Predict the structure.
Amino acid sequence: MSQAISRVRGMYDVLPDQTWQWQRAENIMRRLFQQYGYREIRFPIVEKTALFCSAIGEVTDIVEKEMYTFSDRKGESLSLRPEGTAPCVRALIQNNLMASGPQKLWYSGPMFRYERPQKGRNRQFQQVGVEYFGNPGPQADAEILILGQRLWKELGLDAQAHPVRLEINSLGTAESRGRYREALIGYLEGHKDLLDEDAKRRLYSNPLRILDSKNPLMQDLIAQAPLLRDFLDQESLRHHEQLKHLLDAAGVEYVENPRLVRGLDYYGKTVFEWISDDLGAQGTICGGGRYDTLVERQGGKPTPAVGFALGLDRLLLLIETLGLWQAEPLADIYLVSEAGVDAAEVFALAESLRTALPQQRVIQNLEGGSFKAQFRKADRSGAEFAVILGERELAEGVVSVKALKNRDLPQQQISRKELPRFLCENLKK
RNA sequence: GUGGGCGUAGUUCAGUCGGUAGAACACAGGAUUGUGACUCCUGAUGUCGUGGGUUCGAUCCCCAUCGUCCACCCCA
């Protein structure tokens, strides 16, 4: 036999024992977004490379070294999407969605980045994004954050022992950020001997990122660096204060992190991250902020926007780590039959139950085996009831019903006609 | 992209100072010839990640490669 082909590095299969978690999370989110008036948008997995270069920024790591870029047969450069905001904005502009007023959108799908895989970081990963276009005010930021908090609660992540922490900051406008940048570079140039290699490399390309460094030797330097807050324009300050007021009133807890910056160029004013301490180095499960200039820069009409993207892989990893969710049983009713009974009789019984009780999951054992083996399978299926069709039952035109979980209910024989009503009364749903 | 740890049964791992392997759980059968979850008994299963080197002989030592994990980096 030849060597089996393995999956691509950094990508993963979601197996039947895990898909229920994905589906549960997706269902909760879909319902929640609907509840807030956000509508789903779907866009391609492949876009022109230029879209990401201009939207995300040429000098970001994502564009410089993490994109899956290739030429199609006509030589056009295409890329697998590394994030969702850029294609979402492209779709918004191309389909002129703003013509019918502000847009509240969400999307979900795979993203691709050529990074070194590690826990909570894969080359294909699932991102869910929420974007609010056309509202410049802090109330839009607030709604996004309130929605986020409710989402964690509905997912079961609001436990006090393992909270998901919200950090917020304001990056101000491009002008105030520019003035701060000058001041920061000036400060860092004055302490060049204390900068590590990464910091030196980024001193002129992306100095704000230096504030994010985890290098313990640089923490003093970072702590004493000038703060962006002191360079903010009046409008950004007021926006930020109003947002905090709305969050306080809504009971959304947050910590201000004056050194929180984002790796994508398009953000301004509000930025935020939700972080867990239970995932190791890749603790950010959700990040986002305001990007008021992106739509115009991409060729659309000036349109303010705010949104976030969450990593579904990381979220599920966290939920699994904390043991928050229990798998649902596979079945409600399990049909056990004797070898001598015609399979056609069992099929007929199973189909009649599925017709009469469409909410119940009916599994018919098709693999034969002793009663012992069949009951073991019935038990493992998590079914509430085993319905038994043996030669005796067949001869008498009845079935036996055994409750697998409720031990107070004795096994009994019931006519086939009565069976659906009996099951319906004794099953919760 | 950089540094380090680890790849042995379906899973988690033990082991062989170089003589081709074990446990637990899981799975299957039985104790109980029509009854699961507890208990007991029995059983099957491994190209010891892949390729090459050293050796009479490599799962073990060496090299490469792939995968995985941790940190850096980056971000969701």
User: Anything to note?
Assistant: Chain A has a mean pLDDT of 91.
